[in-house]
Amino acid sequence: MAMVKNAAVRTMSGPVQMPAHEVVYQQLREQILFGEMAPGQAVTIQGLTASLGAGMTPVREAIRRLISDGALVFQGNRRVSVPKLSSEDAEQIIYLRKTIEKELARRAALRISDAEIDRLAEIDAVLDRAISVGDVPGYLHGNYQFHSTLYAQADAPVLAEIANRLWLRFGPSLRVVCGRFGTQSLPDRHKDILTALRKGDADAAASALVQDVEQGMEQVAAVLAEEN
Amino acid sequence: MAMVKNAAVRTMSGPVQMPAHEVVYQQLREQILFGEMAPGQAVTIQGLTASLGAGMTPVREAIRRLISDGALVFQGNRRVSVPKLSSEDAEQIIYLRKTIEKELARRAALRISDAEIDRLAEIDAVLDRAISVGDVPGYLHGNYQFHSTLYAQADAPVLAEIANRLWLRFGPSLRVVCGRFGTQSLPDRHKDILTALRKGDADAAASALVQDVEQGMEQVAAVLAEEN
DNA sequence: CAGCGCAGAATTTGATCATATTTTGAGCGC
DNA sequence: GCGCTCAAAATATGATCAAATTCTGCGCTG
C-alpha cells in the first residue's frame, strides 16, 4: 500500500549507533538547555518533525522524556510548551541544587585526579573568555560544561542525573538573565572551586560550589520576581 | 504530582479519556512501584502490547518516560529492564530522600489542614492493619500513599515530583525486603509524624520523617549488601 | 563415540514510518 | 453572542525494516 519512497535517509552517513529518538532527544535537550527556546514557547510535534527532519514516533518519544525531565510541560489540552518558572519553582530548585551539588562537590573532591582538575581549569578558561567577550551562548555552554564535568567526577550517578536534569528547568530562564544583565555581572566562584579541589579540601569545594549556585540562582530569581 | 486533569467539561457521554500512553504509563508505574516486577526482569515492548492490550506507540512512550524516571534502564543494546539497585545507588537515594523529604515535611507541617491530617491518619490505620496481617501489597500501597499524600501537602511540586520519582527506584527492592523479613519488622514512625503535624511542629515532623526514611532504607541497604 | 564450538538460519524484538482516527480551536454565518 | 463546520494537530494502529539473540546442525577434537 505504501508507495515505496526510497528511504536513503541516514544510512549512508556512517554507522547509525544512536537511535533517532535518542538523537532528537539530545538535540531538543540542547536547544532548551542553551536558551534556543524561550520560556512559554509552544512546541508542536509536527513542527519538530519538520525542523529536525525526523519521523513522528522518535519526536514523540523525545518529547515524553523531556516532559518527564521537567524540560517541557504538558498543558492539559494536548499542547506542549517550554515551562515558565515561577518564583516558587525557583526557590525549590535552589534548595535542591544547594543540597545536591554540595554533596557532589564533596564526593568529587575526594576522588578527582589532577588531570581532570586541569580539564576543568581549561573549561573555566574558555568560559572566562566567553564572559569577557560577552558571548552568551559560549557562557551558557561553558558554565554547564564546568558543572556537569564536575558532577561526573563524583561517581554518584543518581545524584548527578538529578543535578543535570535541574539545569533543564532553569536553562531557558538563565538565557533571559543573560539578555537582561549581560555576562559581566555573572558570578564565577569556579576559581575557588578549583583551588579547593587541588587541595583536596572537600568541605571548601562544597561551600564554594554552594556559593556559586546561590549567586547564579539569585539572578534568576531576581528576573522571575521582576516578571510578575 | 497530580497535573490538573481535565475536570470534565463534557463528561456527560462517558468517562474522561486519558490518552493510551498515559494509561499505560500509570499501569506500568504501579507494577514497578508495588513490586509486581522483580529487579533485573526484562521488559519488552511487544510483551507489554500483548499483556496490556495497547498499541506499540503508547507503550513505547510510557517506557521512555519510565526510563527518564529511573524506573527502567536502557541496557546499551536495545533492551530494557527493571534495574537492580547497587549499594552505592541506595546510599545516594538515602541522602536524597533524607534531604528532600525533610524539606517536604517541614513545608507540609506549616500548611496542612486538620482534615488532611485526619486523612493521613486514616491511611496509616489501614496501613497498620496490613502490617499486622502480613499483607505485603497492602503495606506497599499504604506506605507509599502515606508519604505521597504528605508530599502533596507541601505545596512544593518540584520537590514532590523528585521524591515521588525516587520511590520508583527502590520500589522493586522494597518488595524483596518484605519477602525477606516480612512486614512485622518494618519501621513505622508515622505516629510520630502525625503527632508533630497536629502540633504544627515543623522541625519535629521533619526529623520524624527522616527517621522513618532512615529505618526503612536501612533494611533495603541490608538486603542489597547481602545480595553481593 | 561424545562433547564442544562455531557459522548461519530462524525467530524474536526494537525502530521507524505512513496512515487512519479523534480532538481541539478557530472561523463564519445566523 | 451562539452554534456549526472545517482545518490543523495530536493520538493511535499496523506494516515494514533492521538488529540482535537464540537455535540448529555440522565439523572438529579428545
Description of the structure:
Two copies of one chain form a homodimer. With 228 residues, the first copy, chain A, is mainly α. Helices cover 70% and strands 3% of the residues of chain A. Chain A has helices at residues 20-33, 45-52, 56-69, 87-111, 114-133, 136-152, 157-181, 190-199, 202-227; strands at 42-43, 73-74, 80-81. The first copy, chain A, is globular and about 50 Å long. The termini of chain A are far apart. The model of chain A is unreliable at 1-16 (pLDDT under 50). The first copy, chain A, binds a DNA duplex (30 and 30 nucleotides) through helix 2 and helix 3.
Question: Strands, helices and their partners?
Answer:
Two copies of one chain form a homodimer.
Chain A: H1 20-33, E1 42-43, H2 45-52, H3 56-69, E2 73-74, E3 80-81, H4 87-111, H5 114-133, H6 136-152, H7 157-181, H8 190-199, H9 202-227
Antiparallel strand pairs in A: 1-3, 2-3
Helix pairs in contact in A: 1-3, 2-3, 4-7, 4-9, 5-6, 5-8, 6-7, 7-9, 8-9
Chain A binds a DNA duplex (30 and 30 nucleotides) through residues 1-3, 5, 7, 19-21, 44-47, 54-58, 60, 77-79.
- Overall outline of chain A: globular
Kindly, what is the distance between the CA atoms of the first and last residues of chain A, rounded to a whole number of angstroms?
55 Å
The number of helices of chain A is 9
Residues in β-strands, percent of chain A: under 5%
Uncertain stretches of 5 or more adjacent residues of chain A:
1-16
Assembly category: homodimer
Estimated structural class of chain A: mainly alpha
Helical content of chain A stands at: 55-70%
Number of strands of chain A: 3
**Which pair of protein chains has the largest interface, and what are the residue counts?**
A-B, 32 and 33 residues
Strands of the widest sheet of chain A, in order across it, are 1-3-2
What string, H for helix and E for strand, traces the elements of chain A in order? HEHHEEHHHHHH
